[in-house]
Amino acid sequence: KSAAVEIIEFSDYQCPFCRKFWSETLPSIQRDYIDSGKVKLVYKDFPLGFHEGAIPYAEAARCAREIGDDEAYFKMHDKIFEEQNILDGGAVRSTIPYPGDETLKQWAKDIGYDIGSCLDSGKYRSEIQKDLNEGSSAGVQGTPGFFINGKPLSGAQPYTVFKQMIDAELQ
Predict the structure, then answer these.
(1) Is a pLDDT exceeding 50 seen at residue 53?
(2) Which of the 8 DSSP states describes residue 155?
(3) What is the Cα–Cα distance from 64 to 66, expressed in whole angstroms?
């Protein structure tokens, strides 16, 4: 929590470029900076209007957090991004089919959480909208969008771009 560098990520669970960041860049940031306490990552939802599953996916992750705290949240976060690759056959497309709430509930059960009633309630929609509004106000126009100690970075950039910005902030 007291990391010198804060990365705020605005992301959409149905966005293939967000998945690309999650699978290709985040593991290196995690290993080199987050695990050592130098960087704190804050994930914010930025559901794009043309992704029918973006809001339910975000709700599912928040429902998992309600049951099991941040660890559960990130287990569900990771499960959604893992399954996104399965849903779209591994191709990078702008529209990935949304499998439906029942599938989300099953994914949560697969990792040990029953999110059914929470997901059905829709109770986190206003919080998700708040994240979306915050991102829009900050200038985010697409996903993923990042702020590294307040400095904007747009798109699924390679690790080297993040490393350069993070190292500059740590100086």
Answers:
(1) yes
(2) S
(3) 5
Q: How is the chain split among helix, strand and coil, in percent rounded to 5? A: 55, 15, 30
What is the residue type of 130? K
Pair of tokens at residue 10: 């605005």
| d(C-alpha 149, C-alpha 166), whole Å | 9
> Which amino acid, residue 152?
P
Q: Do residues 93 and 16 lie in contact, with contact meaning Cβ atoms separated by under 8 Å? A: yes
In this structure, what token pair is assigned to residue 113?
A: 């959480």
Q: Using an 8 Å Cβ cutoff, are 162 and 153 in contact?
A: yes
Q: So what's the pLDDT on residue 90?
A: 47
Q: Shortest CA distance to 120 belongs to which of 140, 135, 100? A: 100
Its sign, for the CA torsion 9, 13, 19, 22, is positive
Does the CA dihedral 91-95-101-105 come out positive or negative?
positive
Q: What is the mean pLDDT of the chain?
A: 91
CB 146 within 8 A of CB 152: yes
Closest CA relative to residue 98, chosen from 57, 37, 147, 45 = 57
pLDDT-derived band at 6, boundaries 50, 70, 90: very high
Sign of the C-alpha dihedral computed for residues 135, 141, 144 and 148 taken in this order: negative
Band the pLDDT of 96: cuts 50, 70, 90.
Answer: low
